[in-house]
Amino acid sequence: MKILVVKNYEEMSARAAEIFAAQIKSKPDSVLGLATGSTPEGLYGKLAEANARGEVDFAAVRTVNLDEYYPISPENDQSYRYFMNKQLFDRVNIDKANTMVPDGTAKDTDAFCQAYEEKIDAMGGIDMQLLGIGRNGHIGFNEPDGELIPFTHLTALTPSTIVANARFFASEADVPKHALTMGIQSVFKAKKVVMLASGKDKADAVKAMLNGNLNTRCPASLLRLHPDVTVICDEDAYSLVK
Ligand code: GLP
Predict the structure, then answer these.
(1) What is the pLDDT of residue 174?
(2) Residue 93 sits in a domain of what CATH number?
């Protein structure tokens, strides 16, 4: 695991943008695993700027998103499909047909999840997977638990995640109680993983990920088993690590 500690959110976003731009340059039809949340917004902004300057070409890039609330319509401005369009896809020259986000309206979720996993495999797997980290150590929506489901699945959000994500919704009651998420093993199939963490409210989760035991109670700790992970943390997020 490579750990880069940077000054602040701005620097974290810039370093991440360099890494993703280099990936796309070295393999123009890269399959990128993408994440939502506040953390990657700066990265997406920088990639959009680089695209506008003609430095990064998304024409052949394919993307797979980690997760989506369930149920939710793609037009809902809190859906992760809406977020991805707004933060990245509508700002770069990507072909939307090459972007996959789990379908928050899927009726048969088991069939949907199996097909999602098969599509990732059919693309040759993910070249570079972007991750954020939940305040409780979740990745995607793989919430802390005694056991984890390895592949894409429907899951219930923990009360603490519902509270954490309520800031984006009109009220806590409006936060969907479920989500479709890639599993830990889906993430582990990625050739490279880049995790971003910024801010004091991520310090406990980053400490548990790096210093704690490998444990499904901190899903992010399992990343220590992946052969190619880069964690880019700002000083606040790294402040409790020993
Ligand atoms: C959300 C998402 C995760 C994200 C995390 C952190 O619930 N499902 O993919 O990494 O929580 O979000 P934020 O970056 O807003 O702190």
Answers:
(1) 93
(2) 3.40.50.1360
Helix axes 80-87, 41-52, angle to 10 degrees: 40
| Domain around 46 | 2-238
Mean per-residue pLDDT of the chain: 97
Residue 34 and residue 22: Cα distance in Å, rounded?
Answer: 16
The predicted model gives 173-188 an average pLDDT of 96
pLDDT tens digits for range 33-52: 999 999 999 999 999 999 99
**Closest ligand 1 atom number to CA of residue 40:** 14
Number of domains the chain contains: 1
210 falls in which pLDDT band (50, 70, 90)? Answer: very high
Question: CB–CB of 219/146 below 8 Å?
Answer: no
Which atom of ligand 1 is closest in space to residue 164's alpha carbon? 7
Active-site residue flag, 93: no
